[in-house]
Write a structure and sequence with these properties.
Number of domains: 3
Strand order of the largest sheet: 12-11-13-10-14
Structural class: alpha/beta
Order of helices and strands: EEHHHEEEHEHEHEEEEHEHEHEEEHHHHH
CATH topology of the largest domain: D-Maltodextrin-Binding Protein, domain 2
Radius of gyration: 28 Å
CATH class of the largest domain: Alpha Beta
CATH superfamily of the largest domain: Periplasmic binding protein-like II
Strand content: 15-25%
Number of helices: 14
Helix content: 25-40%
CATH architecture of the largest domain: 3-Layer(aba) Sandwich
């Protein structure tokens, strides 16, 4: 049952006005009925009452009749509406903003083929929409360009090892849509210096990239301890690494995962050490423009589908067989029970397309950052919640 405000033609004023609330059965598929349509219908249905009581009954009857007639004439539920999704479908591809080159997250090979955790996520979104993970175009962006590119519509998604902060989420016109990687800021130093902790960096010169949370965290770390330091700032990450490699600073600071990736590019990686201290929380995740809730839902639930699949044991190899599973959670995820893709404007088996293309979250992590990659980063806090990590997704139901 549902309450509907009835808009009726006033018998005395001859105009549409808010009438009274009436209880009628909620018709399947009926959500919104145009008040203008109801008014026009009531105008044709109204009869001049012979008494006030008869007029009141007639008015209610006419209102109910109008609502029922409007439902029959096509008051159907609003479909998922997204200007971004419409644009993506018209263009035939998702445009994804990524790092200019960060091993494990987003980096092109010699042939221009992109790989990495952030890249996999973009491909997953394309697979959910088009059933084809290849229908994505990658736009490399540095730290200074990334937010402007998303705000201006140059890219549809920013999947670029970007930290979710309050100011970015509330004042830049962006929405973050989950955490793809839990990271923290750390320092890399030369082993020859004999340093074992970030506390040993008092008075040091520190190379850092401008326009990042790393630059702000660095200042906070030293200020709270009353330590002096000298920041050596560059706009592009490749410039920061080059400065450190050439001895222009004592330490290089950025997210821990990024330090591990950049360390592998140095001439003698073993001559350098990533200190164990984390001086900040760096929740990295995809962002979209504010004002398009359906698009944000697609991006958010793409990530949740990958995490839920790992928890349920659904893999890239097993997904087709798992479609016949008797587990209701798996059936809902894969679209064999219910139609949860409809609210996203996607097919019922949207998650099957994601998993067929890139696998679940754990598979993507291990392939790009973990045991199957050159970086060999342990899952740590990026393990599932049931395995002692922080990865957790709402259920599909």
């Amino acid at each position: 049952m549902g309450t509907y405000a009835v808009y009726a033609e006033s018998p005395r004023r001859g105009m549409c006005a808010v009438g009274m609330r009436v209880w009628i059965p909620a018709l399947a598929g009926m959500t919104v009925i145009s008040s203008t349509a109801v008014c026009l219908l009531l105008s044709s249905l109204r009869r001049r009452p012979e008494s006030r009581h008869a007029g009141r009954i007639g008015w209610i009857a006419a209102a109910i009749a109008a609502l029922l007639l409007a439902a029959v004439l096509g008051a159907l539920p609003a479909a998922a509406q997204s200007p971004t999704l419409d644009s993506v479908k018209k263009r035939g591809q998702v445009v994804c903003g990524v790092n200019t080159g960060l091993a494990g997250f987003s980096a092109p090979d010699d042939r221009g083929n992109w790989t990495g955790l952030d890249v996999d996520f973009c491909r997953a979104v394309a697979a959910a929409i088009f059933r084809d993970a290849r229908r994505v175009r990658f736009v490399p962006l540095n730290a200074k360009e990334r937010f402007t590119a998303l705000q201006s519509g140059e890219v549809d998604i920013l999947s670029r090892n970007t930290t979710w902060t309050m100011s970015r989420d509330t004042s830049l016109g962006l929405n973050f849509n989950g955490i793809l990687y839990f990271d923290g800021q750390a320092f890399m130093v030369r082993r020859a210096l004999g340093l074992t902790s970030a506390e040993d960096l008092r008075g040091a010169s520190i190379c850092v990239q401008s326009g990042t949370t790393n630059e702000l965290n660095l200042a906070d770390f030293f200020a709270t301890r009353g330590f002096s330091y000298r920041p050596v700032v560059y706009e592009r990450l490749v410039e920061v690494l080059a400065a450190y490699a050439n001895g222009r600073c004592d330490a290089f600071t950025t997210d821990s995962s990024q330090l591990i990736a950049e360390r592998s590019r140095l001439p003698d990686p073993e001559a350098h050490l990533v200190l164990p201290d984390f001086i900040s929380k760096e929740p990295l995740g995809p962002a979209v423009r504010q004002g398009d809730a359906v698009w944000a839902n697609i991006v958010r639930w793409t990530l949740f589908a990958m995490i839920n699949a790992e928890e349920l044991g659904v893999t890239q190899r097993s997904v087709e067989a798992d479609r016949t599973s008797s587990n209701p959670e798996i059936r809902r995820l894969l679209g064999t029970e219910g139609n949860y893709g409809k609210a996203l404007g996607l097919d019922p088996d949207w998650a099957v397309s994601i998993l067929t293309a890139v696998g679940n979250y754990g598979e993507s992590f291990e392939r790009n950052l973990g045991r199957d990659s050159p970086l060999k980063i342990a899952r740590g806090r990026n393990a599932l919640w049931k395995d002692g990590g922080l990865m957790y997704a709402p259920p599909v139901r």
